[in-house]
Amino acid sequence: MTPTTLHAPLQASSTGLLDHYHIPDFFCELMNRRDPTPPVLQCVKDRLAALSLPELRRRTQAAEAQLYRMGITFTVYSDKEAIDRILPFDAIPRVITAQEWDHVERGVQQRIQAINLFLHDIYHDKNILRDGILPADLVLNNANYCDAMVGVDVPGGVYVHINGTDLIRDDNGQFLILEDNARTPSGVSYVIENRHMMLRLMPDLASGLPIRSVEEYGLRLHQTLCEVSPEGVIDPQVVLLSPGIYNSAYFEHVFLSREMGVPLVEGKDLFVENHRVFMRTVSGPRAVHAIYRRLNDDFLDPLAFNPDSLLGVPGLVEAYRRGNVTLANALGTGVADDKAVYAYMPRIIRYYLGQDPILQSVETHICAEPEGLAYTLANMNRLVIKPVGESGGYGLLIGPHATQKELADFREKLLADPSNYISQPVINLSVTPTLCQDGVEARHVDLRPFALTGRSVWVLPGGLARVALRKGSLVVNSSQGGGSKDTWVMAS
């Protein structure tokens, strides 16, 4: 939506939606900002205050029923009770001002530029390792380091074409980078579908506000993949390679293939001949030039990696190494989003760009280093301790919320395999008003902006706002009971 005239608030109900909202001892992104409230944010507050709780519940129930009918679901493999479930949707939007977004956008762009330079370097000259900016063992012995990428020149020097950067806000409302997702980041489909749902569900709340659109993501993604296709190809054929219907993000694979207007394929639909990739079609083989792959490295090619994989394409890696097809994201990008490498990102940015980071990182202690392990062991009850190879909120310990037994058990894990862990201080994540069982309450949120890199870096104006629906919880991941909100980035 692009109109810039703010409409008057709705006619207030007898019991306003925010009448009993308790502002906690955290930074509330809607209610207790330190600076004077921007007019656009005040307008949203006034309109929310005019809604009643029963009306919001009615609209939310209708939205969740529609999400399920549309098949907008994800899979929790550890849940034996249910295979597919909807991502709980909260109808109270998260609002980010134009000034705040400008800061986020520039910080994400800077970070991705540095990540791509870092990946090129570690697969070529390794200058950053020789100069001692970070330990060589941390990179070269990393489980995600891909020997097949050594010496390979990728189009435009772009390794991370699609990136999801996880951000949080602290007590002062400052955005901090929590982690990078440089392999196969997921969740952008919810960003777009949440907006569609929000405009159907709450047109009176959104009317006239200068909300930036998220509709062009599919077009931008296709354009990006065309820009990084092999040189000399005039009309590149792009495909989206999926593991198949049983993958947890299969809905997103279908969604993005439609948004881009490209075929959705599985490994069995592709083959390699003379080091070139082809797609099987009813009219015969068709050359493929760029593959947006949603498979992990190990499953892409049974000739190069896991010989038991039935999901990949035999010969794909050699075709890629010869420059006959582009893979997005490139092989071996997992080194850049490793939780231990994360601790060195400020140094990496300064090394390659000669700039201070625009977005700060969370203080991180690397347990593989004696000093980091000693600090972590001495402060377990005050830290969040994370395994470097896990995602989705699994395997971590939140010290202040842990029992003595949990702390003792985790201590044994740390001592047994310190290189598998990093620790960080507990950050008081910002909160936003969220519809809960007992009414509108404060819940912690994070944000995952998505960025596309071809000839330049473009950041989708918004992102996946994940909300911890359980009271007091800091874990926002969908697999751990979290939900999502629509993110409104204002144009002015």
Automatic annotation (TrEMBL):
Top-level lineage group: Bacteria
Domain Circularly permuted ATP-grasp type: residue ranges: 93-468
UniProt xrefs under Pfam families: CP_ATPgrasp_2
Stored InterPro entries: ATP-dep_Glu-Cys_Ligase-2, CP_ATPgrasp_2, UCP005522
Protein name: Circularly permuted ATP-grasp type 2 domain-containing protein
Natural source organism: Acetobacter pomorum
